[in-house]
């Protein structure tokens, strides 16, 4: 369970990373759309895990570019939050596959052959 301080720190980093990917990293990202879905910060605030959702471009190639540019991204983050925090955390980026998993589950559910409930069954359930 994260402390309030960790949660505040994580939210700040999530917001700033989102803006960095949206505005300042166009050369890195290209026309792709990157969403920072979640950030988790270590108890000592020295390490942050950022989960990214990548749309429009090739996710693996874009993710590799982002992973290779960690130092530049951390430097941009330091420019933005350096005056309000003591520690600029080391960053680790991970792909967020929750959207792909949700699509997969939708497909599985849609393929299920579930018979419709008869009216008699519905009346018994209401009693």
UniProtKB/TrEMBL annotation:
Subcellular location: Cytoplasm
Annotated InterPro entries: KH_dom-like_a/b (IPR015946), RbfA (IPR000238), RbfA_dom_sf (IPR023799)
Domain of life: Bacteria
Broad class of the protein's primary localization: cytoplasm
One Pfam family it belongs to: RBFA
Tagged with keyword Cytoplasm: yes
Keyword annotations: Cytoplasm, Ribosome biogenesis
Keyword Disulfide bond: no
Record family assignment: Belongs to the RbfA family.
Record's subunit section: Monomer. Binds 30S ribosomal subunits, but not 50S ribosomal subunits or 70S ribosomes.
HAMAP family recorded: RbfA (MF_00003)
Primary role: One of several proteins that assist in the late maturation steps of the functional core of the 30S ribosomal subunit. Associates with free 30S ribosomal subunits (but not with 30S subunits that are part of 70S ribosomes or polysomes). Required for efficient processing of 16S rRNA. May interact with the 5'-terminal helix region of 16S rRNA.
Name the record gives this protein: Ribosome-binding factor A
Originating organism: Algoriphagus namhaensis
Name of the encoding gene: rbfA
